[in-house]
Design brief:
Layout: E1 20-27, E2 33-38, E3 43-50, E4 53-57, E5 60-64, E6 69-72, E7 78-82, E8 87-94, H1 106-116, E9 121-122, E10 125-126, H2 130-145, H3 150-168, E11 170-172, H4 176-199, H5 206-212, H6 217-228, H7 232-250, H8 255-261, H9 267-278, H10 282-295
Domain HTH araC/xylS-type: 190-288
Keywords: Activator, DNA-binding, Transcription, Transcription regulation
Pfam families: AraC_binding, HTH_18
Length: 296
């Protein structure tokens, strides 16, 4: 079997001498995939302006709305789905090299190097923090305006934002060894996540996934659990149920057809699992979604 491409995203910068970029992200359909599962070594900030979305980082999903900031740390596996018919957010992506200084001073050794090496990581979802909002608003305004000296202003905003995050939203620290091990495991298991994303409608066997990663079943299952905090079965069901949620909202397929389309041969098992993951039966979810559309 040919291995799918890795989920590691190549990240080109418009200006290699100032490696940061700003995307304006708009989606006009509930259930639209805003970005598929992937990871990169860059820092990324998703700042939501209009509508709602569900962003998953590693094993945790967050429902976000206007004013929320999602911090995607280096090597975080992440993907997103729109929960609105009108969604708009900014994505600020920067190469960690932008933060380094030529002088190995206290700032570099105590803060910047640990951040760029993932020895310090930040909480993924940040809400109701005026200092964070002010920093990201200023950064976006300076980047978009591009007045003389904007590079200085953008970099100053970044350092100010990192200061607020360090003081209020730093949650874990990884050793260099842990960071290197995570990078290796992500590289090895990248094709596995891609395979699941492309084949969730079909039967997926743990042995087949282990073969894609060139690992024994035991070592593969252990590494998969370490990266996702889920068993393979849990993760595959997580993907399928999210796909089913989108189909229930955006198509006229019956519940039985949605179950079949997302890899479930048994509608009763599908309904039980959907309720376990979403805290609502699929039939009730469908009726509430249709009601929301009529009201809108």
């Amino acid at each position: 079997m040919e291995k799918p491409l890795s989920l590691r995203e190549a990240m080109d910068m418009p200006d290699p001498h100032f490696p940061i970029k700003l995307h304006h992200c708009r989606y006009d359909q509930y259930g639209a995939t805003t970005f598929p599962p992937h990871w990169h070594e860059h820092l990324e900030f998703l700042y939501f302006v209009e509508g709602e979305a569900r962003i998953t980082c590693n094993s945790l999903s967050y429902d976000v709305g206007p004013g929320d900031l999602v911090v995607v740390n280096s090597t975080d596996m992440h993907h997103g789905m729109s929960l609105s018919d009108r969604l708009f957010y900014f994505a600020v992506i920067l190469d960690p090299s932008l933060l380094h200084s030529q002088l190995i001073d206290a700032v570099e050794t105590k803060y910047i190097t640990p951040i760029t090496q993932n020895r310090i990581v930040f909480r993924n979802l940040i809400s109701n923090d005026p200092a964070v909002t002010d920093c990201i608003d200023s950064l976006i305004r300076e980047y978009k305006g591009r007045e003389f000296g904007y590079e200085l202003a953008v970099k100053a905003c970044l350092y100010r934002l990192l200061t607020v995050l360090l003081r209020n939203h730093a949650i874990t620290r990884q050793s260099p060894h842990e960071y290197s091990a995570r990078l290796r495991n992500l590289e090895r298991l990248g094709p596995v996540f891609q395979y699941i994303e492309e084949n969730y409608r079909s039967r997926i066997a743990v042995d087949d996934l282990a073969a894609i990663a060139s690992l024994s079943r035991y070592h593969f299952s252990r590494q998969f659990k370490e990266l996702t905090d889920k068993t393979v079965t849990d993760y595959v069901n997580f993907v399928r149920i999210n796909k089913a949620e989108s189909l229930l909202r955006t198509t006229g397929l019956s519940i039985a057809e949605v179950a079949s389309e997302t890899g479930f041969g048994d509608i009763y098992y599908f309904s039980k699992l959907f309720k376990a993951y979403k805290k609502i039966p699929p039939s009730k979810f469908r009726s509430e979604s249709e009601g929301a559309i009529r009201e809108g």
